[in-house]
Design a protein that fits this description.
Layout (H helix, E strand, L loop, with lengths): L8 E4 L7 E4 L1 H4 L2 H12 L9 E5 L2 H13 L2 E7 L7 E7 L4 E7 L8 E9 L3 H12 L3 E10 L5 H7 L4 E6 L4
Parallel strand pairs: 3-4, 3-7, 7-8, 8-9
Antiparallel strand pairs: 1-2, 4-6, 5-6
This protein binds 1-O-pyrophosphono-5-O-phosphono-alpha-D-ribofuranose and adenine.
1-O-pyrophosphono-5-O-phosphono-alpha-D-ribofuranose binds next to strand 7 and helix 4.
Length: 176
């Protein structure tokens, strides 16, 4: 039987030479693969209270929307700077070279709400680390972070677990 990992395509040298890009569009395009991924992203939290699903731009929106629908809960986007129309709070985080900024609407999560974070891929953990700070600044309680792919050599999982997060990954790939 095919696993989630079997549906993911690898494209060499995208977007830069030397990067093995883990392309989840082939997983999303397969009805069975997509459903399997959504079910497995949620599995550790079956039966737990979750109030909001937070998805990280961009592929986390696709996953977060499907999960929010499955749970009949609200979906909240965390976006790159300048994309959200309302009042936002911002959080800078480190990239390989330089810095980027993620934002969330300041009324998107109420204090005490239980939040699940979802994204397609965990690399350095910088993006999710910024999301954690934004959600906690709004008073949200993070129940966990769920990803399709982990790149263990980049250390994101260790970083998030060091922050006390429960981390669920569906598969791992070697290299960056
Ligand atoms: O753990 P990190 O090192 O922070 O990397 C993980 C992030 O990188 C990718 O998104 P990317 O920043 O390429 O943006 P995109 O989804 O908008 O293309 C991926 O979808 C994660 O969101
Ligand atoms: N190898 C990779 N494939 C897809 N997205 C990524 N984001 C960071 N590294 C990546």
């Amino acid at each position: 039987m095919k696993t989630v990992k079997d549906y993911i395509r690898t494209i060499a040298d995208f977007p830069h030479e030397g990067i093995m890009f883990r392309d989840v569009t082939t997983l999303f395009a397969d009805a069975r693969g997509f459903r399997m991924a959504i079910d497995q992203l949620l599995h550790p939290w079956a039966g737990e209270q979750i109030d909001k699903i937070v998805g990280l731009e961009a592929r986390g929106f696709i996953l977060g929307g499907a999960i929010a629908h499955q749970l009949s809960k609200g979906f909240v986007p965390i976006r790159k700077k300048g994309k959200l129309p309302g009042q936002t709070i911002s959080q800078a985080y480190k990239l390989e070279y330089g810095e980027a900024i993620m934002e969330i609407h300041d009324d998107a999560i109420r204090p005490g709400e239980k939040v699940l974070i979802v994204d397609d891929l965990l690399a350095t953990g910088g993006t999710c680390g910024a999301a954690i700070q934004l959600i906690e600044r709004l008073g949200g309680n993070i129940v966990g972070c769920s990803f399709i792919v982990d790149l263990p050599e980049l250390g994101g999982r260790k970083l998030l677990e060091g922050l006390g997060m429960d981390v669920n990954v569906l598969c791992e790939f070697e290299g960056a």
